Structures are given as C-alpha cells and as structure tokens.
Automatic annotation (TrEMBL):
Protein name in the entry: Programmed cell death protein 2-like isoform X1
Domain spans labelled Programmed cell death protein 2 C-terminal: 256-359
Top-level taxon of the source organism: Eukaryota
Region ranges (Disordered): 124-155
Amino acid sequence: MAAAGKPVLLGLRDAAVEGRPRGPAAWTASKLGGLPDALPAVAAPGPRCGRCAQPLALVVQVYCPLEGSPFHRLLHVFVCARPACGDRGTRSWKVFRSQCLQVPEAETRNAQKQGSRLAAENWCEGSQDWGSDSEETPPPPLTSDPGPDRDGVGAADCTAAQLQALHLQDSTLAVTPRSPAGEGLPGHSDEPQFQPYYICVADEDDYRNSAGLDHAHSLLRDYQQREGVDMEHLLSLCCSAGGDEEYEKTSIKSGDQTFYKFMKRIAACQEQILRYSWSGEPLFLTCPTSDVSEVPACGGCGGQRTFEFQLMPALVSMLSSADGGLTVEFGTVLVYTCEQSCWPVTQQAPMEEFCLIQEDPDEGLFT
C-alpha cells in the first residue's frame, strides 16, 4: 500500500466553462465535463465504450505536472453515460495520460541525468492561489501566480505550481505545435457531453482544521442510527486522542468500518469531487478487494502504477447534460498511473492508464 502522510488536495466545482477555450488556457485547466482538450503534438483522446462501442463522455480533465519532470501532463477520465448501456464496470470507464515537453530536448536530457524520481508534494505550494485573477491574460481558474524561472527553465526541480502558471510565451516547447484532433474545435453531434465546469483546488488540511461540522455529523448520525450503531460513542471516539485506534477495536458490522472511515475523512468538506495525492493512499469507500493488489503494470514501460487521484460521490450529482439524457453512478473511482510517468520520444497519442470503481453502498447519503 502507498505510504501514508502524503499531502492531499481537494478538487471543488468552480465556475462554468464559457465557450471553448483554446491553447494553454484550455489544456492547463482542470475541469469536469465538456470535451477533452489536447496538448500540443498529442491527439485528443476519443475512446469508445467496451460494451456498446459508443463514444464515451469526459468526466474530468486534470492538469497535473510532476515535480522533477520536464513535461506538461494531462489526465482524462471517461465513462459511458448512456442509460441503455447499463455497464457500470471498468469496460465503461477509461483513463488516458498525455504529456509534452515544456523545455528544449537538450535541456531535458540534462535534467533526466539528475534523477528520474518523480513526486508531487510541491503541488501543494501555491494551491491556495489557484483561481486568482491575472492582470495580464485571464488564466484558467486553477493556475498559480508563480511563473517558471527563466534562469532555470530546464532544471529538473521546476515545481508543479510553476508549471500550473506556464504559458507558451514563457517557455520554448520542444515540439512543433500542430492541431490535434478535437483541439479548440466544437464537438461532433454524436459526442456525449456533461455540462463543463472548472475545478478549483484547496488543501485538505485547511478544511480538516476548521470548525462547523454540524451538517457532516448529522449525516453520520443518520447513517449510524439506521445501522444500529451507538453514534454518541463513535463521535466521542472521533474527538478523542487515538480515536481511530479505539474505534478499530469496537465491534461493528462487516463493511461498516471502511465506510465510516470514509465518511469521517470527508466530513469537513462534503462537496469535494476529487482527491489528489500522487503516490499517496486512496480513501476506500468499501473494503478493498484483491483488485487493488492486482493493478496491472504500465502498458508503456512495464513498470508499476501508483495511485494518483480519485473521484468522489459528490461529483455524481454535478454531472448533467443539456438534454438530460446522460447518467452515471459510482461511489468512488480510483485512478492509477505509471509510477515513472513514462513518455516515449515519438509518442503522439495518449497512453491508457488504469482505474478501479467502487460502488456507493448507501447512495442516499450523498444526495
């Protein structure tokens, strides 16, 4: 299991996406719904359902460059949202990773010599600035103010926060931009779309240290009462030192413990739609099965995959289409990506990654 204690960023629904942004304003933005944006020289993903063979709908687009990497990096999660399909398994979900260099190739080789270990801890730096306005060019809602250091633009220690604010005029791309399929163009009529909204980012610690959890406690109380568990005792354990350890020793029905831990962790921010923690620990909604220990190796380099982020129950109610014809249900979707974030020099198509879906054991609690 991934190491505990990794920083966690929460994704929250922000303003609606107006029109179809182009260029860096499009692919440096994280969003839910809409159509997928494409990085320069990389085709936009256009997957189809493994069951009905119809185009999949974009659930989220996440711009997430890594510390120690010279690449822009974009992840797309898709689902088959047609009611007639009825398949809620992995065949209806697809995850793709796209990358492109943000520094000249010669400088990239020098950076890679300094080490290939990747991290995302610095994603937290400047996260509170995401969504701030710029007096020059309006950035996407979740960029940071700091720009890349011009004196060290090729260094391997460029932080993810710096990459978040990167614009084409701030660096020289190692590739010649072209117009990949779907970039900056309106979607075809047969492409299913959820209403698009930007995703803003907050540090989980800021919520966990805040007060005002009456609503969250009320939801927990309702659940525990239905399940016949002593809520007052459990809440007292939550608020006491060592509450987790004490709670784990209490006798509760099979499966309740995992669900309770899930609810307790998200209680301070019920509206979170995404939890990002590169190489961190996923938050399971139900007791994990053997599938978690059997995450397949990367199809590109054969290396291990690591947990990167998960989609949360609150997202379900926010995924709506203009005609109301799309629907999707899930508890949480766990996304695993290549630990080395491999990207061959000649790669021009998105690389498929892996996800696990856990169903909601108590759907009414999140609506």
